[in-house]
Structures are given as C-alpha cells and as structure tokens.
Design brief:
The complex is a heterodimer of chains A (175) and B (209).
Chain A (H helix, E strand, L loop, with lengths): L1 H32 L4 E4 L1 H9 L6 E7 L4 H16 L4 E7 L6 H10 L6 E4 L3 H8 L6 E2 L1 E5 L5 E6 L4 H13 L1
Parallel strand pairs in A: 1-4, 2-3, 3-4
Antiparallel strand pairs in A: 2-6, 6-7
Helix pairs in contact in A: 2-5
Chain B lengths: L1 H19 L4 E3 L17 E2 L5 E2 L1 H4 L4 E6 L5 H6 L3 H10 L2 E7 L11 H10 L6 E3 L4 H6 L3 E2 L1 E5 L5 E5 L15 H11 L12 E3 L6
Parallel strand pairs in B: 4-5, 5-6
Antiparallel strand pairs in B: 2-3, 4-8, 7-10, 8-9
The chains are: A alpha/beta (175), B alpha/beta (209).
Chain lengths: 175, 209
C-alpha cells in the first residue's frame, strides 16, 4: 500500500515538475517577446507605430544595438531629450541586436532608465531598412526625425551629439 | 472685394512655396552607381603580409570583388564563415578578391594592421586583407558599413553592391545568396538580379575631424 502511494506520489511530483518546466519556459518566451520595454516589431508594424503619433507628437526613430559603440555612446543623449520634451516628442528606440542578445538589450534599456516602450527588430534586413527609409544604407546607428505633421525633418547614419538631436527635434515639434 | 481676395491668397501661396523649399536634411553617402568604374584601382594598399597591392593587380580575368570589412564588427563575425567559401567561388570563376579595412578612427581600438594580421591568421583568410588608410577607398566607393560588398566585371564596372546574403545569423538558413548568385551570373554572362541589396552593418569609423 505504502509502495503504491509512493509510486503515485513520485509520478504526480514528476508531472508537476514537467508542467512547471514547460510552463515557465513558455511564459518566459511570451514575456520576452511581449515585454512592454522591448516589443518585437517588423518594418511594416514599425511604420504604423510611427504614423500613430501623427498630429500628436514629433517622432525621433533611432535604430541601435548593444554591440554598436557609437549607438551606445549617443543613447543617453536621446533619453535626456525624451525627458526634456515628454509631451511633444516620442523617441522610438529600435534595437537591431541579434536575437540571442535580446536580454543584453533589455538590460541596457534598464540601465539607461528607459521607462517607455521600445522595439526589437525582427525579420529580414532589407524590408526593414526599406520600410524605415529608402535612403538608409543599413549602417548603424540610424536616426530619423519626423515633424508633428508626419513630415520628414531629417535622417542620418552615424552618431550625433545632443545639440544636433535637439535642433532637429525643435524643428520637428514646431511643424 | 478683388483686393481683399488677392491680399489673402498671396500670403497663402507665398507660404506654400516657401514651405515646399524647407530643406530636409538627408545625410546619406552617395554610393557608387551600378555601371560605374571602380575608383582608385592603381592606388597601392598594404595587405597583412606587408605587400603593397592595387585593385588592378588583384582583379582577375572576369572581375574583382571588394569587401569592406573589419575586426570589431559583430556583423562581420556572423558573416565571416562565408568569407572563404565565397572567395573560393570567386577564384574558381576567375574573379579576384580583396577585403579592405576602412575603420580609420579605430586603429587604436582593434583595427590596426597588426590586429588585421591576427584576424586574417585566426580566420585563415584566403584573400588579401588590406588597410584603407584614411578610409579613402570607402569614401570613393560610397561604402557605409562593414561588411559592404562591391563586385566589378572584367571592365571594372560595378555589377553588384550590398549584402553578402539575407541571413547574417545562419549560413544554412540563407534564402537569397545574393553575392554567390551575382558571382556565378557574372562569370556566365547572365543578368545579375538584384544588382543592389541592403543589410544592417557596423558604421564605418571615419577619420575624426
């Protein structure tokens, strides 16, 4: 009798353990791709997100990656800019990190005290690049500033300093 | 009434005209156009063996493949497993291959000639890897990132530029081997399509002002 109960107990324990293991893996994947701090996005979806700010705010899109030294260097300036214009501007960060570096990207966002939704590039490079800008070659970092009216104010490859960002954002806010 | 109409319409029209000319700052490098001749083909560059070579010397019967590459870019690291097989394919098709390192601002940060020598040895490069002093070649080609590919025909006219393929992460998951197809088509006299592609990559570290 005791032996039988023991077997049942061990079986139930194993079952519980398996459910826990698979369940936690599933929820971990789910929470990773849908983490509000870093959501998956492809080129088309990103375009819609940018358009959703039309008429409300100026938008600065910045494509970055943790492995990209110039991106990491300019990143704090953009966080500072978002804090300076909280109602008039949305800085849309898009991480182009490799899928296996997603956690590193999340960690970096937390370290930079980013507290609004940012995005993680998914899908092939070419359609993503073309969706963002026909003149962008694909080099990182890439920045694009859009006026409140949705019109392009400026776009550039390479890093920039705070003054350049601010100057373009101020122009964008006035539109 | 006419006066009032004119006085209101003129400023509106003037405003619209002025607004149309508000400059949009679009700072992008002009890339070498398809069909353009390879620039700086007689300018010598030093490769990791210490030899001075020119693009004309590297070119073979059917053309030349130039790859702007470097040591510190993770995208290069991901694509690097395709470097030697592509160089082999190019040589089999009588196309010369050279990699140029344009990262002038990072010569003290892993992009020196000595660093390049070590990288070429470690990765067993089967093609010359030369230093682009002052990023002059990158500037003349309109290259923006690493890796960045330029393929020329036997007349040294550009026939393909852009990405190696459509999957940096995994060679076995590549759906469109752009460069391999371009090499094969160039050698067999077939049309190259697409002639230009894009991929993400590390920005070239240009000389500091």
């Amino acid at each position: 009798m005791i032996k039988r109960f023991g077997k049942v107990y061990i079986f139930q324990l194993l079952l519980l353990f398996t459910v826990f293991l698979f369940g936690s893996a599933f929820f971990s994947t789910l929470s990773n791709s849908q983490n509000p701090l870093l959501k998956d996005v492809n080129g088309d979806a990103l375009q819609k997100i940018i358009e959703s700010y039309k008429g409300e705010r100026a938008v600065l899109v910045n494509v970055w990656a943790t492995w990209c030294a110039p991106c990491v260097e300019e990143f704090p300036e953009l966080v500072k800019l978002q804090r300076e214009f909280p109602e008039q501007l949305r800085v849309v960060f898009v991480s182009a990190d490799f899928p296996d570096s997603r956690d590193r990207a999340l960690q970096f966002l937390r370290e930079q005290n980013v507290d609004w939704t940012t995005y993680f590039k998914t899908g092939n490079d070419q359609p993503f690049i073309e969706a963002l800008s026909s003149t962008w070659s694909g080099a990182l970092p890439f920045t694009k500033v859009l006026g409140k009216n949705g019109e392009l104010v400026a776009s550039w490859e390479q890093s920039a300093d705070y003054e350049k960002f601010k100057q373009n954002v101020q122009t964008a806010i006035k539109q | 009434m006419k006066k009032l109409y004119l006085s209101s319409i003129v400023p509106v029209l003037l405003g619209a005209v002025l607004f149309a000319f508000v400059p949009v700052a679009n700072e992008t490098v002009a890339e070498l156009e398809i069909g353009a001749k390879a620039p700086m083909t007689d300018v010598p560059v030093q490769d990791v063996s210490g030899k001075m070579i020119t693009l004309n010397e590297v070119a073979m019967e059917n053309g030349l493949l130039v790859n702007f590459s470097c040591n510190t870019c993770p995208w290069v690291a991901r694509w690097e497993d395709r470097y030697n097989p592509i160089a082999q394919l190019a040589k089999e098709n009588k196309i010369g291959v050279i990699a140029l390192n344009p990262n002038t601002a990072y010569r003290q940060k892993g992009e020196s000639l000595q660093d390049m020598k070590e990288r070429a040895q470690k990765s067993n490069y089967q093609f010359p890897y030369a230093i682009d002093e002052g990023s002059k070649f990158a500037s003349a080609f309109g290259a923006t990132r690493t890796p960045h590919i330029y393929l020329f025909n036997s007349d040294m006219e550009l026939v393909y530029r852009g990405a190696i393929d459509d999957n940096a992460h995994s060679a076995k998951d590549v759906e469109h081997p752009y460069l391999k197809n371009a090499i094969k088509n160039l050698a067999s006299g077939q049309t190259i399509d697409p002639q230009a592609t894009k991929s993400l990559g590390c920005t070239i570290k240009w000389p500091e002002d």
